[in-house]
Amino acid sequence: MAEGGEPGPDRARDGGFWARLWRRPTKWFLLGIPAGGALAFLVGIAFSGAFVTTVEATSTLQFCTSCHEMDANVGEEYRQSVHYQNAAGVRAVCADCHVPHALIPKLLAKTRATFTDVPAHLMGKIDTREKFEAHRAELAERVWARMRANNSANCRSCHSYAAMALDKQGHYAQRKHTKEYVEKTGKTCIDCHSGIAHKLPEDM
């Protein structure tokens, strides 16, 4: 700026930084900068859409039960549970219980499954009923440990102590759903409801 607040000669001549930024390039190769930026923007949108679609598609009931071992071993158990069919008509699918709802934990779970569940599927670790039953306790304990670690966060995405009508529950349930009981025992949902959707291991 010149003295007295007047624009300097260079700024007055070229219209300032923003004017220069939007001025048509005089060199042909400079056209590649905005063109490349626009292309990168469009590719980013396409990638984001494909990514979100893939994440959602791999969280559906149809996807989770598409492989033989899941449908034959736990799919039928799930279809007999209150999470599949109930008087209220509310259905919780596999991902509602087994996949974190927050984005970063969800992506970590998907990544973990890619390097553990997929190889186990390809190697036929539980592709027969006998193999599945042999590993049922191990698989169940692994899931329960994750749920205890996050205080049954997936359960709480649907079930809330604040929303419970305790007067409509049995005396035993009322006592366990109080804040005092939870604080005293440190127990979380999965400690009492571990067999709600799948059969418990035989030795439990």
Describe this structure in words.
With 204 residues, the chain is mostly helical. It has a single domain (33-192), classed as Multiheme cytochrome fold (Orthogonal Bundle). The chain is 59% helix and 0% strand. It is extended, with a radius of gyration of 28 Å.
CATH topology: Multiheme cytochrome fold
How big a fraction of the residues is strand? under 5%
Please give the alpha-carbon distance between the first and last residues.
81 Å
Class computed from helices, strands and strand pairing: mainly alpha
Q: Summarize the biggest pleated sheet.
A: none
Query: What is the global morphology?
Result: extended
**What's the CATH architecture?**
Orthogonal Bundle
Number of helices: 12
Number of domains: 1
Compute the gyration radius: what is it?
A: 28 Å
Order of helices and strands: HHHHHHHHHHHH
Helix content: 55-70%
Oligomer: single chain
Low-confidence stretches: none
Average pLDDT:
86
- State the name of the first-level CATH class: Mainly Alpha
Mind sketching the topology for me?
Blueprint: H1 9-14, H2 17-22, H3 32-57, H4 61-64, H5 68-79, H6 94-98, H7 103-122, H8 129-149, H9 153-156, H10 171-176, H11 179-185, H12 189-192
